[in-house]
Specification:
The chain is of the alpha/beta class and about 300 residues long. It is built from eleven helices and eight strands. Helix 3 runs parallel beside helix 11 and helix 5 runs parallel beside helix 6.
Length: about 300
Amino acid sequence: MALEHPSFTILDGGMGRLLERLGAPFRLPEWSALSLIEAPDYVTRAHQAYVDSGADIITTNSYGLVPHMLGEERFGANGRALADRAGRLARAVADGAGRRVLVAGSLPPPFESYRPERFQAGEAPRILESLVSGLWPHVDLWLIETQSSTVEALTALAAVTGDGKPVYVSYTLKDEDGRSGPAELRSGEPVDEAVRKTLAAGASGIFFNCSQPEVMGEAVRIARKTASEAGTSAYIGVYANAFAPEPPSDTPYAGISDIRADLDPENYLKWIERWLSDGASVVGGCCGIGPEHIDAIRSFRKAREAA
């Protein structure tokens, strides 16, 4: 299913922080999954907020449906049913939009985000299968998100290859404060190498997400150049987070990250304009980027298309 828009495609923003703002049940380690379990109406409200703000794609609230966030027992008992619920909620909002809105099935890291060394190749397919089977009937495309290494991403890609839906792989990048080196995945793999491997494995596009905006532009330029050299017309997308810089932690659920004050809608839109110039064709937001940011992007697109 094509993503084409006359100018560019708008992805939605982050789910967890929006649920918190709406007053939904919200705590660690469940994060956004808690609302799905206890108060799914809030998930519907969050999706609707993004549709109303102009998103062309909304993403299922399935990022937290993994054992290290739900707990192994709850995942085993309810993981597939919760994925099905996440898909149904997003589908209902998209179908009621009155315009074409696609549903992306979010496939998160099966283990801890940002920590490629925690990936377990033998266990990942079992976790992914529950998510895929629950989401599949409801989604238009797959969005394999926040991948820290190619082995992590290609394992997820294999779980959905051949099911008839396009697949987009989104990598998270090294983004330590003051970083000046070449664009790399969290694993240290160069972006061009990751792009080549991922496109060769059948991905319809390469995105970058859940990293600070300062590191995204170079990755987008490299991805666009590498895809062109490979002779593909792959989509290139970017959706940054608004987290303040912080080092990796062995206690990821000790607290909720701070949000940068300088990434209000007006300033985030400046990054969007740069990424579009760099070659992105799909843009949106990750953690801390909300409906007001998406609305600013829509207004910019409308003005640009009218010019």
